[in-house]
Structures are given as C-alpha cells and as structure tokens.
Amino acid sequence: MKALNALLMATLMTGSVAAMASDGGDRVVSNMNAARTLAMTDYNQEHADTQVASHKAAVEAAREGLAVQNVHQ
C-alpha cells in the first residue's frame, strides 16, 4: 500500500511539473491576472456607490476620532 501511495505521489508531482513546462507557468499567471482584472472591474462597477459611501464614512469617523483625541489631550 505504501508503494502505491509513493507511486501515486510521484505521478501527481510529475504531472504538475509537466503542466508548467514550456512557459506554462507564464500562461497561467497571465490568465490569472486577466481574470483578476476582469473580476475587479466588474466588482467595482457593481459596488462603486457603496465603496464611496463606506470610504467617506471611514474618513469622517477618523476625523471625529482625531477631534476627540485632541480634546482629551
């Protein structure tokens, strides 16, 4: 059984190395970057209003927090 597990592990490792051969890694990275860019573009289009509102609220909260700190000092 151990020999079968070792053979299976060697086969899987060889397969992953073969998939990355001949600039396969470069193609994978470029495909991942393209997919990430597309996903972030779609996300930003759908959530633009909430992101702006959330950012403004965070800025206001930070300003209020600084004002409170300055008063207590």
Largest sheet: none
Mean pLDDT: 77
Shape: elongated
Helix content: over 70%
Number of distinct helices: 2
Distance between the termini: 71 Å
Strand segment tally? 0
What share of residues are in beta strands?
under 5%
Structural class: mainly alpha
**Low-confidence spans:** none
Order of helical and strand elements: HH
The value of Rg in angstroms is 25 Å
Description:
This protein has about 70 residues and is mostly helical. About 90% of the residues lie in helices and about 0% in strands.
Write a brief caption for the model.
The chain is mainly α and 73 residues long. The protein contains two helices and no strands.
Throw out a few tags for this protein:
about 70 residues; 2 helices; single chain; mainly alpha
SSE topology:
Layout: H1 2-19, H2 24-72
